[in-house]
Design brief:
26% of the residues lie in helices and 38% in strands. It is of the alpha+beta class and 178 residues long. Residues 53-168 form the SnoaL-like domain.
Length: 178
């Protein structure tokens, strides 16, 4: 799984014929469709969509505790196989392993008695061989221990890599809308 995550963006640009187009925002991609996509490719796209929906559901525990075991199943586990850039609270958090991800976000989530996120609009999916990219906008928020409500909106990208019969997130980038 050591293949650099940027390769999927280049592969996606080549696969969609958008090599000469450098989008400046996620919305510049529009709806991505690969002409002549095979049934197998459509199945892979459906799998990535389902896994992305699972990620949203796991980040929406409501009043229940987060299921970190299930969340971990979505991510690459070995050190050096995961790179995360998440913008949270005015800071960019850079994480380089599933362990870092969990030890960063678990204490954060323990501050809340309720938490939900959901996609806004279409989740865009590109699958090219053993790499896939999802691009989305999410809205969410929660209630902290003092009863204070917070809301936020983020744009996100996940890069997935297939190893054997398992897809895993190898890169996450979330940026808070201003």
């Amino acid at each position: 799984m050591k293949k650099h995550w940027m390769n999927v963006l280049v592969s996606a640009a080549i696969a969609t014929g958008a090599v000469a187009i450098i989008p400046t925002t996620i919305s510049d991609f529009g709806a991505l469709a690969i002409p002549g996509q095979t049934a197998a490719a459509k199945d892979e796209e459906a799998t990535i969509r389902q896994l992305t929906q699972q990620w949203f559901e796991l980040w929406s525990p409501g009043k229940d505790p987060m299921d970190w075991g299930a969340m971990g199943e979505l991510f690459a586990q070995d050190p050096g196989e995961l790179l995360v850039f998440d913008d949270a609270g005015g800071k960019v958090v850079v994480l380089q392993s599933w362990k870092d991800y969990r030890t960063t976000w678990e204490p954060f989530m323990e501050q809340f008695t309720d938490w939900q996120v959901k996609p806004e609009g279409e989740v865009r999916v590109i699958v090219e061989g053993d790499l896939a990219t999802t691009m989305f906008t999410l809205a969410g928020g929660g209630i902290d221990q003092d009863g204070k409500a917070i809301t936020f909106r983020q744009r996100g990208t996940h890069v997935w890599q297939r190893v054997g019969d398992r897809w895993a997130i190898v890169h996450e980038h979330l940026t808070t809308d201003s």
